[in-house]
Amino acid sequence: MKIVSVNTARVGDLFAGQAAAGRHVATGIHKQPRDGPVAIGWLGLEGDGQADRKLHGGPDKAVYAYPVEHYPFWEERRRRAHQHAGLAYGALGENLTVQGLLETAVWIGDRLAIGAVLLEVSDVRTPCFKLNVKMGLSHAARLMDQSGATGFYLRVLQTGMVAAGDAFRLLPGPRLLSVRQISDSRRTARQPDLF
C-alpha cells in the first residue's frame, strides 16, 4: 500500500474558468498534486483549505483519502457523458490518493501508519453538488454513494510529513463498523439505480 499523490488546494471558486452567470461558490475541491514532502498537522495538510467546515475539515475530517483504483470508473463515466475523460490525481477532492486500500477493507478506527505520521479512519465521505460540478456529471454525487467508491476521512493522531511514493501500513482498529457498511446503509430503495 502506498501514497500515489499528495494533493492540496486553497479555497477558491467552484466555477473557476466556467461561465456561471456570476455565481460564486467557495470550495476546496480543486486539489492539485504537490511535489516533495507535505506537512500534516492536526487539522490537515499544509496549504490545504476547506470552504465548508460543517462537511469537510476539522479534527475528525482533517484528511481525505481516495483509492486510485476508482479512477477508471470515473474516467469511463466521463467518457460516456462526452467529457474529457482524463483525471489528474486530486480530481475527487482527495488529499491522499492511495493505492491498495479499498473501502471494503477499511473500518472506522483503523489506522494508517505513514512513517512517523499516524492517521485514523473516522468517517465516510458524503458527496455534495460540488462533486457534480467538478466531474462535469449531474449525478456524480449519487454515483459515488451508489457505487460505494466514497473514500474515507482520517483524523490525525501523529503529525509529520508525507510525500507521493510513501508506503503505509494498515493497523486494524476494533473492526465494529466498516466504511463499506456505512456506504451501503445510505442507499435507499427510492434512489434510482444508476448502474
Q: Mind summarizing the main beta sheet?
A: 8 strands, mixed
Output the structural class.
Answer: alpha+beta
Radius of gyration: 16 Å
What percent of the residues sit in helical stretches (DSSP H or I)?
10-25%
How would you explain this protein's 3D organization?
The chain is α+β, with helices and mostly antiparallel strands. It has a single domain (2-15, 23-186), classed as M1 Pyruvate Kinase, Domain 3. It is 17% helix and 27% strand. It contains four helices and 13 strands. It has helices at residues 71-80, 129-135, 140-147, 179-186; strands at residues 2-8, 12-13, 26-27, 32-33, 38-41, 44-45, 63-67, 96-99, 111-114, 117-124, 152-158, 160-162, 169-171. The chain has an eight-stranded mixed sheet. Strands 6-5-12 form a three-stranded antiparallel sheet, with no helix packed on it. The protein has a two-stranded antiparallel ribbon with strand order 2-3.
Blueprint of the fold:
Elements: E1 2-8, E2 12-13, E3 26-27, E4 32-33, E5 38-41, E6 44-45, E7 63-67, H1 71-80, E8 96-99, E9 111-114, E10 117-124, H2 129-135, H3 140-147, E11 152-158, E12 160-162, E13 169-171, H4 179-186
Parallel strand pairs: 7-8
Antiparallel strand pairs: 1-4, 1-8, 2-3, 5-6, 5-12, 7-11, 9-10, 9-13, 10-11
Characteristic terms for this protein:
195 residues; M1 Pyruvate Kinase, Domain 3; three-stranded antiparallel sheet; globular
Précis, in short:
The protein is α+β, with helices and mostly antiparallel strands and 195 residues long. It is built from 4 helices and 13 strands.
